[in-house]
Automatic annotation (TrEMBL):
Active site: 11 (o-(5'-phospho-dna)-serine intermediate)
PANTHER family referenced in this protein's UniProt entry, alphabetically: DNA-INVERTASE FROM LAMBDOID PROPHAGE, SERINE RECOMBINASE PINE-RELATED
GO molecular function list: DNA binding; DNA strand exchange activity
Gene3D superfamilies hit by this protein: Putative Large Serine Recombinase, Chain B, Domain 2, Resolvase, N-terminal catalytic domain
Recombinase domain span: 152-273
Name the record gives this protein: Site-specific recombinase, DNA invertase Pin
A Gene Ontology biological process term: DNA integration
Resolvase/invertase-type recombinase catalytic domain span: 3-144
Coiled coil as UniProt keyword: yes
Residue spans crossing the bilayer: none
Listed PROSITE patterns: RECOMBINASE_DNA_BIND (PS51737), RECOMBINASES_1 (PS00397), RECOMBINASES_3 (PS51736)
């Protein structure tokens, strides 16, 4: 006998269990209506990813003929691509999928379209919610009311959101600062602490990296940086200035300001006898956090490539700026890849220019999105009108029942019918509100289509200076960091994901433009400077380009003829058609590169 799997989900562990209960009650009633055995599945996990334990367990349990039901599309997931992929997987197993009151028919194009649009709207809502959340966090940081999400060593937080100093842990923090101020090394301080039997909150020994993080946290003098990642890596690494720090209203100081600044300045600028120490630098690099390891991510560990400055040797005063990832899983075969900063950043920049090389593609994607959204808005308006019509008819029925109730001298059966009609009207009004909110979000998405890929974005990108830190020590480091952050923000807006996968870098933009870059294994200090890049658009291969970083040149080495062949050119040989398409692509790329050089030279956009 087929089963009905009711899947209920909330986003975080802190959310009330009441929401899960209400979802399961609703789904249980649907199963009872269809006289099916009900199997409840519930979990607390983000909808941005489908790597959820209970969801994956349900996918393994379902069999042909079973039903999978969710309260609405947002409970299924808030990632458009993965929502569609999971729906296809369920349909391939001949499993029936019900979203709310609607059953998704795999053979009905309209059902597929509506599911795709609702998934896109859920994705849009998640992004908008994140932006609003970030805005609220920024306001709290400016006002000094920010409370770190991580459990800071030395502090504890009670149920009323009041932060208190933990004296036992504060003693350790003061010991670290006082010892470092006397000139002791981080490693000596760490070893001494462990020899005294002092342990972390989890009962483990202290590590030098942990002690290093403590001396870089301004929160221990009662301040925090307004812009940063809340006491984590970015917060620790940023260059602190007096006008950059906000006095916390929540965290009392453990050490005084003079001691903290003495220790920080000593760590940042003083070369000590016991260690080879480089000048402290800001970690706001262009690609930090953008490039991730696909293999580790799929196994549940989101490992990203971050910036690193290394020396050739202790005797040589030469620096190498690289992007490295030291947190791969042991079984990952991609942990040997290290990318030279200037090469990787130029490679990403070249791919960025290729996105703008053919503006017809950008217009095509924008038109396709607009058409889909318009159809969705039309369907939603039709659904809204049907609900309004049903509400109107129910209100007429209600008036008749009230009249009958009065005529029959308060008959209890009629009263129950009136209450039932009231419940139906209330349910339909809630459905109408939900449809109206979807129409509003779809209209907002309609207005924003195409804005990301205007040529003003290319202009902003080109005008941002991207100078490696290590090539000019006299350049103001913080000013370069601001430019790099702005450039990274543009990448984050336009790049959907960037993975290192199977000896390749795969960069996918939100307009479906995809670049597959072939990597070579590191051979000692020999660095790869020539890259073969396969370019795809809308899921289809277009051409292959070879990028030579050393000589700053490119060459088209292959073109897809299946899509580009013109049947009207019967008198022209295929070789000439092939060369013609190659030349067209080369001209488009050369044109956008020339435009970038012109913008750099003049500071103006003229296209």
């Amino acid at each position: 006998m087929p089963k009905f799997y009711g899947y209920a989900r909330v986003s975080t562990q802190d959310q009330s269990d009441r929401s899960l209960e209400l979802q399961l009650i609703y789904l249980r009633k649907k199963a009872e209506r269809q006289e099916l055995e009900f199997v409840p599945i519930q979990e607390k996990a983000s909808g941005s990813s489908f790597d959820r334990p209970e969801f994956q367990r349900m996918l393994k349990m379902v069999q042909a003929g079973d039903y999978v039901g969710v309260y609405d599309n947002s409970r299924f997931g808030r990632n458009t691509e993965e929502s569609i992929a999971s729906l296809k997987l369920l349909h391939s197993k001949h499993v029936n999928v019900m979203i709310g009151e609607s059953k998704i028919d795999p053979d009905a194009p309209r059902d597929k379209l509506l599911f795709s649009i609702e998934a896109a709207i859920s994705d849009f809502y998640r992004t908008e919610l994140r932006m609003k959340s970030e805005s609220g966090i920024e306001m709290a940081k400016k006002d000094g009311d920010w409370i770190f999400t991580s459990r800071l060593y030395g502090y504890r937080q009670d149920e009323s959101q009041t932060v208190h100093i933990v004296e036992e842990e504060a003693k350790v923090i003061r010991y670290i600062f006082n010892c470092y101020d006397r000139g002791e090394s981080i490693y000596k301080i760490t070893n001494d602490m462990n020899s005294y039997g002092w342990r972390t909150r989890t009962g483990k020994e202290f590590h030098a990296s942990t002690v290093r993080r403590y001396i870089l946290k301004p929160i221990y003098m009662g301040y925090y940086k307004e812009k940063g990642s809340g006491g984590q890596r970015g917060q620790d690494s940023a260059p602190y200035e007096f006008d950059n720090l906000v006095k916390s209203k929540k965290y009392p100081p453990i050490v005084d300001e003079d001691l903290w600044y003495r220790v920080f300045d000593s760590y940042r600028g003083v070369k000590r006898k016991h260690a080879v120490q480089l000048q402290y630098r800001y970690s706001g690099y262009t690609l930090t956090g953008l490039l991730k390891c696909f293999y580790c991510f799929k196994l549940g560990k989101a490992t990203t490539y971050v910036h690193n400055i290394s020396t050739v040797s202790k005797k040589q005063d030469k620096l190498y700026a690289n992007y490295v990832n030291r947190t791969h899983l042991k079984s990952c075969g991609q942990k040997y890849h290290t990318f030279r900063e200037i090469i990787l950043e130029d490679l990403f920049e070249f791919c960025f220019y290729l996105v703008f090389a053919n503006y017809r593609e950008i217009e095509q994607i924008a038109e396709e999105h607009i058409r889909k959204i318009q159809n969705a808005i039309g369907d939603l308006n039709k659904q809204k009108n049907e609900i309004e019509s049903d509400i109107k008819n129910l209100k007429k029925d209600k008036q008749k029942l009230i009249q009958l109730y009065l005529n029959l001298n308060n008959d209890s059966d009629v009263q129950n019918q009136i209450e039932s009609v009231n419940q139906e009207i209330k349910s339909l009004q809630q459905s109408k509100s939900l449809v109206e909110s979807k129409i509003t979000m779809a209209s907002s998405a309609y207005e924003s289509v195409g804005e990301s890929y205007q040529f003003e974005k290319l202009n902003d990108f080109v005008l941002l200076r991207d100078i490696p830190y290590d090539y000019d020590p006299n350049v103001e480091q913080e000013n370069i960091a601001v430019h790099k952050k702005k450039k990274r923000d543009i990448y984050r807006e336009l790049i959907q994901n960037a993975w290192v996968y199977n000896e390749k870098i795969v960069i996918r933009y939100t307009n479906t433009k995809t670049f597959i870059i072939q990597l070579e294994r590191n051979r000692g200090r020999v660095v790869q400077t020539e890259f073969t890049i396969k370019v795809c658009f809308n899921g289809r291969y277009q051409y292959t380009v070879k990028f030579d970083h050393k000589n700053r040149t490119f060459e088209i080495v292959d073109v897809d003829m299946k899509k580009n062949v013109d049947l009207s050119l019967k008198d022209i040989s295929p070789e000439k058609v092939y060369e013609g398409h190659k030349q067209t692509i080369e001209n488009d790329i050369s044109e956008v590169l020339a435009l970038a050089r012109e913008i750099k030279a003049t500071g103006n956009l003229d296209y």
